[in-house]
Amino acid sequence: MQYEWWHEAVIYQIYPRSFMDSNGDGIGDLAGITSKLDYLAGTLGVDAIWISPFYKSPMADFGYDVADYVDVDPMFGTLEDFDALVTQAHDLGLRVIVDWVPNHSSSMHPWFVESRSSRDNPKRDWYVWKDPAPDGSEPNNWISVFSGPAWTLDEHTGQYYLHSFLSEQPDLNWRNPALAEAMLDTLRFWLRRGVDGFRLDACHFAMKDPLYRSNPVLERPEHGYKDLGEYDRLIHLYDRGHPDIHGLFRDVRAVLDDFSEERPRFSVGEIHLEGEEWASYYGEGDELHMPYHFGMLNGDWTAAWARGVVDTQEAVLPAGAWPNYVLGNHDEIRIATRYGARRARMATLMLLTLRGTPTLYYGDELGMVQADIPSDRQQDPWGRRQPGLGRDGCRTPMQWAAGPGGGFTTACPWLGTVDPDRVLNVEAQLADPGSMLNLTRRLLEVRKGSRALRIGRYEAIEGLPETVFGYRRRVEGESVSVYLNFGDHPVDVPAEGQVLVATRSGIRGRAGGALALGALDGAVLSS
Ligand code: NOJ
Ligand code: CA
Fold this sequence. Notes:
Elements lengths: L4 H4 L2 E4 L15 H6 L1 H8 L3 E4 L3 E2 L11 E5 L6 H13 L3 E6 L9 H8 L11 E2 L20 E4 L4 E4 L14 H16 L4 E4 L44 H14 L7 E4 L5 H5 L10 E2 L11 H14 L7 E3 L8 H4 L2 H11 L5 E5 L19 H5 L40 H5 L5 H13 L2 H5 L1 E4 L7 E8 L2 E8 L5 E4 L3 E5 L6 E2 L3 E4 L4 E5 L1
Parallel strand pairs: 1-2, 1-13, 2-5, 5-9, 9-10, 10-11, 12-13
Antiparallel strand pairs: 3-4, 6-8, 7-8, 14-15, 15-16, 16-21, 17-20, 18-21, 19-20
The structure holds 1-deoxynojirimycin and calcium ion.
């Protein structure tokens, strides 16, 4: 197998609103990111950044509603700022991955403005328009992920348009060849500007049933629908993931391959599926380089669970496909809150030592926690529509230093921060040898120095205490083993070798080949 940069890279996700504000308006921007590239490439030591959308947008979904796929929103800067970012990142050896939102545009995109202007507009078919049902209601029973019908009536033309997310995010019609070509061209635009790859937003939504049939409804579960939102009451048979999506991904791959002579360009898709269905999105090595694997995001935090997630992914991978892991992103509760601070340390150790490409979410290297934003200050449209589902809490500004603006801005930040003890910031943690930041830095350093960790085989270690998940990573001439104690009690693990990095200082091998792990400890050993 040939290993390319993206197999060996650690990706770092940046939510641009919240990373660094360069011009004192309280909102992060591209020049802010550029000013922190030294931190990313040097101090921290990641290999690639993925930047969430910074395109022109009315910000109904903070940039996931794109009004121009080939321009920068003035809030974030200019195309020149983007070029400067790419140049400096490449000078530092950092790859740049940008977000691409194929399923929907903004309702303010000129394409949609034209499309809705009349039934016979040439761009009418660039979006999904359907006649009302005979009683005037929606064309079918599809529900938007953000709640409510997935259809909105356009009074002026008397038809409904489809939106799998907000009504401000009309779905593009990928079955229209002109639209498909226009969208693929937007990829070429960024590839020509030097980007190394794309993260594809909600990408398996892009192809639906060509007959637009209603989804089957879940049979009423015994305990009722109590915990299910209206979206989850449907079986999503027709509104996403139609098999034709594979053709679309092959087209995307062909565009990337056209630009891959000098270095391979890369794609990773946001696809919330499991098992073989999930794995099908690798195609035969001709679709996505990877569909994101979200199995580590939620679990009961036992050794058996973690091993199950890893072994299942390894088992369903097509030949030659490469695994990946994620612990957080801009849609999920911060890991330090979801699993707790100690578990977040273990989880990061696991993330950075498993076989596959890891993605680190900004601020997780500090153990930043979920902010509890009062309802009258909530910004996320989802949270405003469905109390409790808002994602603001994981999108608060990166904490560079203690103090009101957190080193993020000289103004009032667009969203509040939480750092009651003033230790969840870069400055404080660089000075503390035991900090989460220094643990993450050390893990990245060990990984960088170890071929076994970067590309080695994975094999679970048998015969360990029940609370311990252990695995070996191996290449010819090098072997590294990892032990994680998921339990609440200390355990002795039979293990030889020198501790390279551990969740806590003081974890050492014992004479006679035993490793003493406390509750929620993890260690990486050369073996
Ligand atoms: C998934 C993105 O990660 C999320 O933030 C966004 O709201 C939806 N897709 C819609 O684009
Ligand atoms: Ca700014």
